[in-house]
Amino acid sequence: xxxxxxxxxxxxxxxxxxxxxxxxxxxxxxxxxxxxxxxxxxxxxxxxxxxxxxxxxxxxxxxxxxxxxxxxxxxxxxxxxxxxxxxxxxxxxxxxxxxxxxxxxxxxxxxxxxxxxxxxxxxxxxxxxxxxxxxxxxxxxxxxxxxxxxxxxxxxxxxxxxxxxxxxxxxxxxxxxxxxxxxxxxxxxxxxxxxxxxxxxxxxxxxxxxxxxxxxxxxxxxxxxxxxxxxxxxxxxxxxxxxxxxxxxxxxxxxxxxxxxxxxxxxxxxxxxxxxxxxxxxxxxxxxxxxxxxxxxxxxxxxxxxxxxxxxxxxxxxxxxxxxxxxxxxx
Length: 331
Hints:
By secondary structure, the protein is mostly helical.
């Protein structure tokens, strides 16, 4: 019968998708040397949480955030790390409603479209299976949310939406007209959003400004915005200080302010920020080394050679391959 032929065809397609994606995941694991990726805590804070409830709730919210980006991509950001998406640490957190809506929607659609379930499953396979490598289920990834990982899942989303709208309007002319109008408006809105997003990517300044509209509490985005403001512009300093208001221990901004003040000849302020920056509890080695070099450069200019020697000693202990410290003696 036609149903049997359709079921066989569907089964073949589904098995092919499963095999193909399994091969891709296997290749990915082999490239990583059979080990999960190692990343700083700021890249994926939930991977460092020891609380099971926090991990479960946060992962569910992150998945719902990805669904939101598929359905309503109004607020987009070039980066979601650091405090882009705070951890969901309690059942009482209002963001759990987003997770609940996601699961209810995913369960209701197959029930509504049960007469064409074999086609709907294809859409779900593309939506879910292609997202699994980025889901943090099999291994933690080096990001919280990344819009680029939604390219393949978006094909499954489009299939599901088209099947749902077609099924709902099949025997109802009035509903078909209403859904068709809605669909046209929805496509037109997404087209407008795409054109506007293209403008955001014209330069770094526009990109980070638009990202801050989506995540105004992210210190990294303020730092990124500052990197696109000229050194002579007073806004650069104020934007960097804004990032420190959000996170008083943000090492990138301490380094950037120290470099900015050094460039402007404000050595005392550069010295202050570099001194504070090197004592931060979670400062990255590369940033720590650069701030130590700033200290060495300032003290060398002031002929405080003993302090310069101390800088060289500490840098070479932590960073054996650093040769910049010898600059103070030969130039």
